[in-house]
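[STRUCTURE TOKENS]
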Amino acid sequence: MPALVLVGLGAFLITIALALVFFVVPGQKKTPLDINSTTVTEVAPGAVLVGKALAGNTPTDLNSDRPECRPEGGAAAGGEAEGDAPEGEAAEAETEQAFPVSCFIDNDIPLYSQRRVMAVEPSDSDVITLQAAQSLLREDIAGGEDVEALINATVDRVTVDRVSAMPVDEATSTLQVVAGGGDDAAPAGFARNGLQYKFPFDTEQRAYDYFDASTFTTNPIEFVGETSVGGIEAYEFTQELGPIDMWSSIRDHFASISDGYDPAVESVLASYRREGMTAGQWGLEGDPEREVDMRRFYTNTRTVYVNPATGQIINGKEDIYQFFAEDQDEAETFFNDKARMEEEKSEPTRTAVRFQSGWNEETQDNTLAGAQESADTLNTFGRVVPAVLGILGLLSLIGGLVLGLRGGGRTGGRTTRTRA
């Protein structure tokens, strides 16, 4: 009887171990339905073209004392005009004055980005819908919490497979774009491709398609190598983007999902294209009076660190630069000229947004704690527990067989002696 108990126990333990490895743990490799995380970057010096100032032809407060940004015949913007011109004519002259674009660009100001990702409906055993609200803000305006501090924002919704993290092949994604002026493009459903907020479980050492919410484009993000973040295993991935014509890419996106633009879309698109200004205002070479059509171009070097077991992004950083250029060729020539880029960084004449930063320490600590817990759970039930149960089961099975064989041998010996 003890032998049969040991054999049964051994078989049971081995069965449980195999079930954990092949059924239970794989079933747990799904994005949890209670996701609710916030990532915030370090505050870093950057630059931004203030759209309201440009639209109102009013130099920003940070630029109003510069000689080229003062009204002709007057003091700093907003000051009393000099000379004998009548008040009405002075006001008209100020309104018509063509200030250089540099008068509307605030440089070396503190910027930071924040993003909150949470699970929303529809979500079930197979898919999860993620809603991500992301914004870029000025820390020097009301501590970065006032509406005036907002530079741009997006509200993104995407339904993805809970294992592969890839979007479902349906027109369920929406992406609401909010410009600095407060206008926003109403979301409409569309189908997208590419990872974004999470990588698949058991991430591989290869390139993946990755969706960029600023341009509505999907591009490869390349595997760089193995590393560790806070003691947790990580794969490093990097994506080099641009220059990408934002006006064209956003226009094409909205054109592909609707028959026409609503006023909000037109308002958002207006911030990506500037017509009717002169080359001199933009600091371009050649005839300063030449009228130019300038479009906003986007570049980004994106780096993410992914825990391969869970697919969770545990750290990230971006080097975003948006600027205006006449066309694709001129944009590429300008961006690839390192000397001109350094000049632009110091004295911007065509910059729309310049922001380079990574997750702050608090975000990293919170993310690493969650990642460690998830990795520990998978390791415990995927490796440690099955290994222990398997070993105990095997020992129990062997012990039962040995005990059974010995018991059988002793019984056979007594029978032989009795017959003798």
The chain has two domains: 42-57+99-358, 58-98. The chain has nine helices and 14 strands.
